[in-house]
Amino acid sequence: MYLSTDQFATSFPVASSPSFTMTTIHEQGSGSCNEDVLLSEGNLCGVFDGATSLEKSYARNGISGGFQAASIAAETFRHHVGPLAQAAEVANYRIRTAQGHDRIPSDQRLRLWSTSLAAIRLHGSSFEYCHTGDCMIMLLHHDGSHSLLSPELDIDSETLTLWQQSPDSGQPIHSQLAEQIAKVRLQMNVSYGVLNGEPEAMSFLRHGHHSLAGVADILLFTDGLMLPKADPTGVTDWQSFADMYCRGGLSAIRNHVRTVQQRDPVCRCYPRFKMHDDIAAIAITVDGGASPECKLPQSC
């Protein structure tokens, strides 16, 4: 089941695992379509962030290549009963096949669609996870600490720094820095991973199992929920991110992100590619209760 809860968050118990509660946000940004896909199916959930080719290749059905890639991946995960890493491999193959049907040569890399992903499957006392690209998995622990199962990737910091420092030419970032953006895109499955049909994508896949002992909440989210940074080369303030979640859940983070972005309409103070990015986010609360530290005003 896909959850498309544009502009709203929803909370509901997981039917197969009554000790888990999920809250979701799925919202289109300022682009022409939402290329993020959110998946929730029993004890399986995931977020998928599609990216259309730089040549804006559309599938034959008229939808964007990024949405096509994200949808193929989400649908593959939804139906796959084996390990999540295996689902990712199958999804990658299906993306390649779909691009072939649309006559997109695999060696024309700037024409390839792609998707990042973060997915988990919950079990009784543990969960399986799978991740690639710039989607994130954060754990909030009962002792008030937090940890990341996915690394924060430094994909676009050079591009965004150039954008921030360059004089205003009146051109949008995709025109003004077209060569730089293409250079970064060609690093797919070279310095960072995405599912785009290339076999090399599997080398960047992160997957495994993690105990639920001490885990209060699990957050999965696309980069649209990331806190805006005035310095593109800086590290995200994950403590502030966790504190916002403690105070008001995913909606508190979303509202902060959108407010900061709204105050910077030219996308230069907090450099980015467009006013608002798409958001797909899932929060899983374990055993019906958030971290005790989240409930203490002095810690949040």
From TrEMBL:
Signal peptide (residue range): none
Matching Gene3D superfamilies: PPM-type phosphatase domain (3.60.40.10)
A Pfam family of this chain: PP2C_2
InterPro entries, per the entry: PPM-type-like_dom_sf, PPM-type_phosphatase-like_dom
The PPM-type phosphatase domain, residue ranges: 30-245
Name of this chain's protein: PPM-type phosphatase domain-containing protein
Source organism (scientific name): Desulfoprunum benzoelyticum
